[in-house]
Amino acid sequence: MSPTPAKPTFRFRTVFISDVHLGFRGCSAAYLLDFLRCVETETLYLVGDIIDVWSLRRSFFWPQQHNDVIRTILGKAKHGTRVVYIPGNHDNMFRDYDGLVFGNVEIRREAIHETADGRRLLVLHGDEFDSVIKASPLLEALGNRAYAFVLKLNRYVNFLRRACGFPYWSLAAYLKHKVKNAVKYIANFERALAHEARRRGLDGAVCGHIHRAEISQIDGVLYCNDGDWVESCTTLTEDFEGRLSLLRWTESKEVITHSGALAPCSLEQAA
Question: Per the confidence metrics, is the pTM higher than 0.90?
Answer without folding.
Answer: no
